[in-house]
Amino acid sequence: MVMSEDKKIIQEFTSGEYKEGFVTDVEQEFIPKGLNEEIVRMISARKEEPQWLLEFRLDALRKWQNMPQPDWAHLDMPEIDFQDIIYFAAPKKDKDRPKEIDPKLAETFDKLGIPLKERDVLAGVVAVDAVFDSVSVTTTFRKTLAEKGIIFCSFSEAVKEHPDLVRKYLASVVPASDNYFAALNSAVFSDGSFCYIPKGVRCPMELSSYFRINAKGTGQFERTLIVADEDSYVSYMEGCTAPMRDEQQLHAAVVEIIVEKGADVKYSTVQNWYPGDAEGKGGILNLVTKRGICKGDGSHLSWTQVETGSAITWKYPSTILKGDYSSSEFYSVAVTNNHQQADTGTKMVHLGRGTKSRIVSKGISAGVSQNSYRGLVRMGKNAQNARNFSQCDSLLIGSRCGAHTFPVIQSQNPTATVEHEATTSKISEDQLFYCNQRGIGPEDAVGLIVNGYAREVLSRLPMEFAVEAQKLLQVSLEGSVG
Amino acid sequence: MGHGHYIAPPKGQYQVQAGEVLNLQFVVLPGESRDIDVSVDLLGPGAEAHLKGLYLCKADEKVNFRIVMHHCAPGCKSTQLFNGIAGGEAQVSFHGTIVVAPEAQQTEAYQENHNIVLTPEAKVTTQPQLEIYADDVKCSHGATVGQLNEDELFYMRSRGIPESEAKTLQMLSFLSPVVPEGREEEIEQAIRTL
User: What's the count of helices (H) and strands (E) in chain A, helices before strands?
Assistant: First the structure.
């Protein structure tokens, strides 16, 4: 009897690994597979885009076609057949009720715990932009925000309603030719969020984007543009999930953040794309370019990320510190289990005087996964008295995983100070024994130790995310001990 | 093998067997550009390697270090400490990698690289890397790039030590952990030429 009880618990554990792995059965429309000029024109036409944006896409496509796929990352990347992907998939809208959200979609986001109906949300805590495959389904709290002059809408709407702003800032931080995946995104990006905070406005609530891949054989290519005008403040959160599938799916996003003089932007991500099964089958290829620029004096940009999902993660949120006395932070926890691979880190490019940056990266590898930190800290010629501190720690669970650190430090200024330190260790027998002795099981003990290890980063997350992130850490590491 | 302290050749591949200890000392003084490319394989259980490096660069000198420390067997230990000063329009790069193979459990590997940049034209690039495929390891690396401490300088000057002398003392103390025995005077003279 005891045995069968045990087995049941184990089964529940293993089957409950990725609870966001369901598929929503909604009618969807697709465009044909493949990538060429015609497809790009088709996407642009479907979204009724202006001529300049179509030209931007076509230009990016031509650049992409002439670029080789990068292979410098410490990743065993499967070959991606870019002609075998559907670049646009949208849930069909019920024509009778065009203003309403499809109940099935609402249900999906409900299951994921994303509040779409405003009344369900605690009095104005979070405004959500929910993106389902290639289109934004709904954006909540737009009116409340509009009263303050804040623009928060889907990217497609922004192109129609605020073309001047979009045109001014699009690709100003991540140009189309920046890298292979950014070029791909620039050519085929479907939807995403646009956010503009006017001068001197403090955004009263957390803004949030939620990305969901649902359709089979598709990729998601979202584009997010955040502009914080002088002396404004915004906290922006991003979350993502996808169904469990045997084949791998591509996610190549671009995020651009512009921080003007004296403004403060906090960008948080909890990335929980489907990581593939225990044998490494399926999962999302998460190939993302995120970059912000502290354009004006005294501006501040903070990145916080919790990376637990994706079969492959290739992501380096970066900051260009252009304004004098601007500052930036990067806090990251990256967990890999089973066959997951992560190559993630940050770039801090110090250009202005007295600029400061701080990097805290915590990698956790279990199973047969590979987890790398890759970072760059560059002190430019004019970065007088600039300062950087980096700390990259790795925690190994099990003897078959790998943890790697590849930092690059470049200094061209004698008054700049750069410090980097990294450690690699495993959960010690003593720590586990201490917990076991006090009646805490091995799984819980590991969860406890890992949460303590990642605390410095988790404590930086907005409240809404912190709880979710802690649970995620525990779930991602299930079955990694014993 | 039991090498004593000596100035290692710029290119070298060292294989350290079980129970052996390798000591390497690198010194690059002003007046030369150097490419140093060294790899060490710790092949047997309990093998140890200790590397120390010192470099002083001025004018348009280019000094490049490329160090690979490969832990292939269990229970090996390695330490690396490289301290250097770049003045003039010198360009210094340090590229150090520690690789710990899956079978190299109970590894202890440490690497440190500290740099002082004296002039706006000098450029320092440092890339300390860890590639670890085993779990029962203690590994750490650290790298810093900075300048001479103003407070220390002020302390000495307020006690009547001239600026240039104070700076020399600061640089000497910064380098002292990596100065080979018996070569203190030579290094001091080299510092004065910077």
Answer: 12, 24
User: A68 CA to chain B: closest CA distance, Å?
Assistant: 25
CA distances for A377 relative to A78, A482, B144, angstroms: 30, 39, 11
Give the count of beta carbons closer than 10 Å to the beta carbon of residue A95: 6
Q: Cβ A406–B124 below 8 Å, yes or no?
A: no
Sign (positive or negative) of CA dihedral B170, B171, B176, B180:
negative
In this prediction the pTM is 0.81
- Max intra-chain CA distance, chain B: 58
Query: Which of B64, B97, B117, B125 to probe the A interface (max A CBs under 10 A)?
Result: B117
Residues in chain B within 8 Å Cβ distance of A412: 120, 122-123
Establish whether this prediction's ipTM goes over 0.95: no
CB A311 within 8 Å of CB A285: yes
Interatomic CA distance for residues A69 and A48, integer angstroms: 31
| CB < 8 Å to B153, chain A | none
Nearest to A408 among B115, B127, B136 (CB): B127
Residue closest to A285 by CA, chosen among A331, A245, A319, A318:
A245
**What residue has token string 């369900």?**
A120
Asked if the Cβ–Cβ distance from B143 to A407 is below 8 Å, we say yes
Average pLDDT of every residue of chain A: 81
Q: List Cβ neighbours of A157 (8 Å cut-off, separation of 6 or more).
A: A136, A194
Whose tokens are 């929980």? That residue is A272
d(CA A145, CA A208): 13
Cα gap B68→B120, rounded to integer Å: 30
Residue A472's SS3 state is: helix
Separation of alpha carbons A300 and A228, rounded Å: 10
Chain B contact set for A400 (CB, 8 A): 102
**Is the CB of residue B164 less than 8 Å from the CB of residue B148?**
no
| Contact predicate A129/A157, CB 8 Å | no
User: What pLDDT is recorded for position A464?
Assistant: 66
Sequence-separated (6 or more) residues with CB below 8 Å from residue A284: A213, A242, A248, A249, A250, A251, A273, A274, A275, A309, A310, A311, A312
DSSP A19: T
Mutation for A interface: B145, B153, B171, most A CBs within 10 A: B145
Q: Kindly state the tokens that stand for A41.
A: 């024109």
* pLDDT tens column, A394-430: 888 877 888 888 889 998 888 899 988 888 888 878 8
Contact A409, B127 (CB under 8 A): yes
* A394 in contact with chain B, both atoms CB, cutoff 8 A: yes
Contact A418 B144 (CB under 8 A): yes
Q: Please report, for chain B, the start and end positions of each structural domain, with discontinuous segments joined by +.
A: 5-147
Pick from B118, B133, B142: which is nearest to A402 by CB?
B133
Count CB atoms within 10 A of the CB of residue A113: 10
- The first and second tokens of residue A182, run together, are 């950014």
Helix residue spans in chain B (DSSP H):
150-157, 163-175, 184-192
Inter-chain contacts counted by CB atoms under 8 A, chains A and B: 113
A244 pLDDT above the threshold of 70: no
CB A248 within 8 A of CB A279: no
The nearest CA of chain A is from the CA of B93 a distance in Å of 9
Give dist(CA B69, CA B98) in Å, integer. 5
Q: Do B123 and A379 touch (CB under 8 A)?
A: no
